[in-house]
Specification:
alpha+beta; 9 helices; six-stranded antiparallel beta sheet; five-stranded mixed beta sheet; Helix Hairpins; 13 strands
């Protein structure tokens, strides 16, 4: 059991930790993506602002050499045919723009010659979406395109290499045609922020998971502690066979408390059943001892003195013994939960059959069919009539009728009746209210107990109350067909 409890704690802890881990992973991924997107958008906005500033100067007719090119960030000005005509100083390498050259092809006309180091090779490999033709077709001289194009690349400025977010802005000039301005904003800040957030998550998430696992382990252990107490007490009850003991019930109102209460109810029912069984065995042994002893005595006397053998007495004791054994066998079958056979039985006809041949018994019956065992129901009527005849002064009346969905059999006598305080006790096994009555006259005290058990097995009830004349009235109520 301890292993099982530990396994429950482990499974609960593992399951909770996995759920939290998945949630943290999803949340962390979403945070990182959102952070990277927002910071990349900010870098793109900075790059676009720089590109538009240069494009505004070009639209105003500013010469290439007089452009305000940021020395700290890569800026390129490219013609419609892909020729680099202006570039920021200290730019040593670039990728991800319209051209990867970093020196103008030649000094532009009508401007002082620059230090061009050779002609470019035309169009370079571009990683951006090239919208030059569309810009040339849709822009008027001096107009700047509204929608820039973005790309990611890298550049080396003054010996320092870094990743950049590039913005490409087209501008239409009067004398130089369509020009494209590429300007970059570094992504180092964005990457640093994402890297920092990732580091925090890699450190923080395991700590959070460790805390969740620890708290879950402790809470599960605390929740299962009453279960361990129940287990220990049940083990002690099993070892000592003391059914009077009970498991501890927690003060809470959760499932464990309900389990403890149900366990105690089960122990109480088991204790009552065992005690009833012990009493039954003791009473049965006591009741069997008398006819067996009497029969043995008569046989021993008959063996020694055949002329003194009381054959009728021996037969009577044998019959008593046989009836008692039959009663005990029927009770054992009822206690074992034997279900009655499903047959249609007319209680009126059964009552008339059982009353036939009995003196001082009158029957007033109307048809009332029930479903059950004909033999067991006959036994109930026989026991009720035997009991009524033993106590009646002059007459016994049997009435059979229907009341709604019930069939009712009433057996009344004109005897002394049953005291109200004993009206439940008479249905207990081996109970005889008249202590002065002999066993030969009163029986073993099993008839009414058998009658009630059979009635309950058939879904009915058997009760006793007084009659206006002072006698006893036993009522058997069964579901009618």
């Amino acid at each position: 059991m301890r292993r099982r409890l530990a396994s429950v704690r482990a499974r609960a802890t593992l399951g909770t930790t996995l759920v939290v881990a998945v949630a943290l992973l999803a949340a962390g991924t979403a945070v990182l993506l959102s952070l990277w997107t927002n910071l990349s958008d900010q870098a793109g906005t900075q790059a676009e602002r720089t590109a538009r500033e240069v494009a505004a100067e070009l639209a105003a007719g500013q010469p290439y050499r007089a452009l305000s090119l940021d020395d700290d960030r890569p800026v390129q000005v490219v013609t419609e045919d892909g020729t680099l005509v202006a570039v920021s100083e200290h730019l040593e390498r670039i990728s991800g723009t319209g051209t990867d050259t970093v020196r103008p092809a030649s000094p532009p006309a009508a401007e002082p010659s620059g230090e061009g180091d050779g002609a470019g090779d035309g169009e370079g490999d571009s990683d951006v979406e090239d919208d030059d033709s569309a810009g040339a077709a849709g822009l008027r001289p001096g107009e700047i395109a509204e929608d820039p194009a973005y790309s990611d690349g890298s550049a080396t400025v003054d010996g320092e290499s870094a990743d950049y977010r590039f913005a490409a802005v087209e501008v239409e000039t009067e004398d130089r045609g369509t020009l494209t301005v590429y300007a970059g904003a570094p992504l180092s800040t964005e990457r640093t922020a994402v890297r920092t957030a990732l580091t925090v998550m890699l450190i923080g998430f395991p700590l959070v998971l460790a805390v969740v696992a620890g708290v879950t382990w402790l809470m599960t252990r605390r929740a299962l502690r009453p279960v361990e107490g129940i287990r220990r007490e049940m083990a002690a009850i099993t070892a000592s066979a003391d059914l009077a003991r009970r498991v501890p019930e927690p003060d809470s109102h959760d499932e464990v408390a309900r389990l403890a209460r149900t366990t105690n109810e089960t122990l109480a029912a088991l204790e009552a059943a065992v005690e009833r069984q012990r009493r039954f065995v003791a009473d049965a042994s006591h009741e069997l001892r008398s006819p067996i002893a009497s029969l043995r005595t008569q046989l021993e006397v008959g063996a020694a003195h055949p002329e003194l053998l009381d054959v009728p007495g021996a037969v009577e004791d044998t019959v008593r013994l046989q009836n008692l054994a039959a009663d005990l066998l029927l009770l054992a079958r009822l206690d074992a939960g034997e279900r009655p056979t499903e047959a249609r039985v007319d209680l009126a006809a059964l009552a008339r059959e059982e009353a036939a041949g009995r003196v001082r018994v009158s029957v007033d019956a109307e048809p009332a069919d029930v479903s059950g065992s004909r033999g067991q129901l006959r036994r109930v009527l026989a026991n009720l009539l035997d009991n009524a005849q033993r106590h009646a002064r002059e007459a016994v009346t049997v009435t059979v009728r229907r009341e709604g969905g019930r069939a009712v059999v009433a057996v009344a006598d004109d005897g002394d009746g049953v005291p109200e305080a004993d009206r439940e006790r008479v249905f207990e096994r081996f109970v005889r209210l008249d202590a002065a009555r002999s066993r030969d006259d009163g029986g073993a005290g099993l008839g009414l107990a058998i009658a009630r058990d059979v009635a309950e097995r058939h879904g009915g009830t058997l009760t006793v109350r007084g009659t206006p004349e002072g006698g006893a009235l036993f009522e058997l109520r069964l579901p009618a067909v």
